[in-house]
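pls read this protein:
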Amino acid sequence: MKNYDSSWSDLQRGLYDESYDIGLAWATDRDTSPDDLQRLLELGESAETGELAGGEVDFGPLVDGIAEATGEGVGRVPADYGDPGFRGFIDGAREGAPDDVYGV
């Protein structure tokens, strides 16, 4: 389910939506390894609880997804659940993750 921050602008909501769709597609792709999906869900949970506050993440599928959503090359993304790109990708992957994946 989509989870907007009430303070986001239309542009930020658009980034969230684009990232969400990319995360959902990645999670439901049969070539996505369950271990990678598990790792992403753990990163999302850690970011959501604040464990990664102020940090950055270089997890390939997440970085690639944010780069695709923004149209800009990036090497790292903020590990911030308040960031619309990060949150969108994580939420989309959560939505698409099979029930047998831990953390769903």
The first helix runs from residue 10 to 28. The chain is about 55% helix and 5% strand. The radius of gyration is 12 Å. The longest strand covers residues 56-57.
